[in-house]
From TrEMBL:
GO terms for molecular function: large ribosomal subunit rRNA binding; structural constituent of ribosome. Belongs to the eukaryotic ribosomal protein eL19 family. NCBIfam families: PRK08570.1. Residues 66-85 are annotated as: Disordered. Keywords: Ribonucleoprotein, Ribosomal protein, RNA-binding, rRNA-binding. InterPro entries: 60S_ribosomal_eL19_sf, Ribosomal_eL19, Ribosomal_eL19_arc, Ribosomal_eL19_dom, Ribosomal_eL19_dom1, Ribosomal_L19e, Ribosomal_L19e_C. This is Large ribosomal subunit protein eL19. One of its GO terms (biological process) is translation. Binds to the 23S rRNA. Residues 1-140 form the Large ribosomal subunit protein eL19 domain. Residues 66-81 have a biased composition (Basic residues).
Length: 147
């Protein structure tokens, strides 16, 4: 039986532990001598390779549902550093002000319009730089659209 399993594993290209032999084939195993005999039993469906075991997604699904419900978000579950809200704000505002200043310096934005947009940036009117650009284009505040 051990030799037959080893030969079958070799033929099927799997490990010995994955080779399964049908109870009906047990009597025929005494007559098996060559690889061709084993191949014949495989063709008859009396010997086969079990499917490979995967990693279960069940635990992940449960955890995912919990996270969607707002659980598992405490301090102990967090990895990596978080950017301070103030730091995020500063970076966002600096990017938008830099963009407005380049438009003003290139003469694409009138000083009055520049001041108005500058104050809107300060007042947190725009979500991000993309929002600012969209606003400028939609309200046609420059001669040609900004990118």
């Amino acid at each position: 039986m051990v030799d037959v399993k080893r030969l079958a594993a070799d033929i099927l290209g799997v490990g010995v532990s994955r080779v399964k032999i049908s109870p009906e084939a047990v009597e025929k195993l005494d007559e098996v001598v060559t690889k061709d005999d084993v191949r014949a039993l495989i063709d008859q469906g009396l010997i086969w390779a079990e499917q490979e075991r995967g990693v279960s997604r069940g635990r992940w699904r449960v955890r995912h549902v919990k996270k969607r419900e707002g659980r598992r978000r405490g301090h102990g579950s967090r990895k990596g550093r978080r950017t301070d809200e103030e730091e995020v704000w500063k970076n966002k505002v600096r990017a938008m002000r830099r963009f407005l200043n380049t438009l003003k310096r290139s003469g694409r934005l009138e000083p009055r319009v520049w001041r108005q947009l500058y104050e809107m940036v300060k007042g947190n009117y725009f979500r991000d730089l993309g929002h600012l650009k969209t606003y400028i284009n939609e309200h046609k505040l420059t001669k040609e659209p900004v990118r």
